[in-house]
Amino acid sequence: MDFVLVPIIVAAILMVFFVMGTVRVVPQARRYIIERFGRYRTTLQPGLNFIIPAVDRINSRLDIREQVFTSAPQPVITQDNLVVNIDTVLYYQITDPRAAVYEVANYLQAIDQLTVTTLRNVIGSMDLERTLTSREEINAQLRTVLDDATGKWGIRMNRVEIKAIDPPATIKEAMEKQMRAERDKRATILHAEGERQAKILTAEGTRQQSILEAQGDQQAAILRADGEAKAIDLVFQAVHRNDADPKVLAYKYLEMLPQLAEGDNNTLWVIPGELTRAIQTVTEAFSDQSPAGTRPQASQVPAPPTDPGADAPDALEQDREGPDDGPRALTGGAHPAYDVAATLDQAAEMARRAVDDAKADAAAAEHGGAPGDL
Question: Who is most buried in 28, 90, 335, 348, counting CB within 10 A?
Fold first, then answer.
């Protein structure tokens, strides 16, 4: 009985091993290359597959997803005889597993060597400056060459990128100096442009300010002139409308004379020749109309000498030789010089009194009384 069970157990074990060797489960995005007696038989797809044990065997297990391959830095000589180290990154995908296994012995090594040779051909036709600024052009040429070469290997090149381009240390230092010089140049230009714009704006502002000030001064002068003209016109109309007599005009003439001596620096002032005539007119007019004992007489005003040629030279000479501590008055008329200041004060006082009396007479006349009743 035991001898019967042993062969059954052995057969069962062999059957289990046979089944295990026959069934193959392929994961997703994987491909298995099957050889039968050393020859390519088929490519197993993802899922459950069956093979014949001891007859079929798995040669290669391939991943058909997109792969990334980074090559080591490769020294490349540029057209201007400078050595640069270039790192590249390749993105590829296996499209034909059978070709990837049987058309090339090691596709990664083949791609790496093809990339190096292509880089040397492309970079050798460019100088350093163009190499640093033409990465897109280099990438396009690399991809074109690699696609043509790897197509028959069952590999598709999706992207080719240059990761780094490292020039020599001396070239880096020179490039940094050049960069700093360019930046300093741009900074200087921008600073100069800023100063230029600032000066232009300042000049424009000054110009506008000057124009506005000139226009303001012009308008102010016009307004002042208009005001003075209107004031003069009003005074002129008032004088003619009220029919001022010579007494009022002489009084206003004497009232304005003290303003001639205003000012701290006035040491010499000239009295017009009409002064004595105005004084004489005012004093004679008011003295003739004044009642005795109520109004100042003309005798209160010092009369000029009757003989102009007798005392005038002495009086003028005495006035010229006097002290310089006050203003000196020179008459421009035909009468001799005398104490003009006292005469002016007296005449002004007489004129004011005469005006007050005239106002009183006018008020009395309006009420029906005789002049001098109020």
Answer: 90
* CA pair distance 90, 159, nearest whole angstrom: 6
Q: Is 84 helix (H, G, I), strand (E, B) or coil?
A: strand
Phi-psi region of 368 (alpha: psi -120 to 50; beta: other; left: phi over 0): left
| Segments of the chain assigned E as strands | 23-26, 30-36, 39-44, 47-50, 56-63, 67-70, 74-77, 83-94, 155-166, 268-271, 328-331
Each of the 374 residues of the chain gets a pLDDT tens digit; together they read: 566 677 777 777 877 777 777 888 899 999 999 998 889 999 999 998 888 888 888 889 999 999 999 888 888 888 888 888 888 899 999 999 999 999 998 989 999 899 889 888 888 888 888 888 888 888 888 888 888 888 899 999 888 888 888 888 888 888 888 889 999 999 999 999 999 999 999 999 999 999 999 999 999 999 988 888 888 888 777 767 766 666 666 666 666 666 666 666 656 656 555 556 666 665 665 555 444 444 444 434 444 444 444 444 444 344 444 444 443 433 334 343 334 445 556 656 766 676 677 667 666 665 654 444 44
CA pair distance 307, 114, nearest whole angstrom? 138
- Spatial CA neighbour of 328 closest among 278, 279, 266: 266
Show Cβ contacts of residue 99 under 8 Å, excluding neighbours closer than 6 positions: 152, 153, 154
Please state the pTM of the whole predicted model.
Answer: 0.46
